[in-house]
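Worked example

This section walks through a single chain of length 180. The input is the sequence exactly as stored; nothing has been trimmed or padded.
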Amino acid sequence: MLICMVEHAAGQKRRCSKCGNWYERPGRDTKHGTCKKCHAKDSREWYFKNREKRLAKCREWQKKNREKILGYLRTSYQKHREERIQKARQYEREHKLEVHAHHVVAWAIRTGKLKNPGVCSNCGMQRTTEAHHADYSKPREIVWLCQPCHAIFDRRRRSESARRYNDDRTEEGRGQVRGI
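Given that input, the structure is written out below as tokens.
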């Protein structure tokens, strides 16, 4: 079988040394000699095989450069301070009901009127639990959920509200020609 190699403007075709498939080589020379899929697979395997060694190097670098890291965090914190404050205020303006519900629960916990049981109401696991509001207009009606269960409940609520939103939009648009 005769295969013709054709040069392209962006690069040229090469055969992967791992899988044998043809891939287009970028303009700059690569040292890998493998296609993207094989290179990604090799990188992933190396990543998991050398996990402990990588983490140890990372910890060692962090110990040596503690002041450098803290300095970066301080300057970054100060640099983006106003932006964070504006985002927080915007969130509070857009989600008044949710923020109020969160404040009510936090105040009740702080004053001792509400106690975190430490057991998830959904799965029964003894973990750190979070207050979940099924309805933000009733801030004192909460269910204590662990973080994984809380994420599931919130994801379900978001998908249901998106479904309702899309249903409302399709009913409004029925019988109308869109885009005219």
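What to look for: The beta strands are 12-15, 22-25, 129-133, 142-146.
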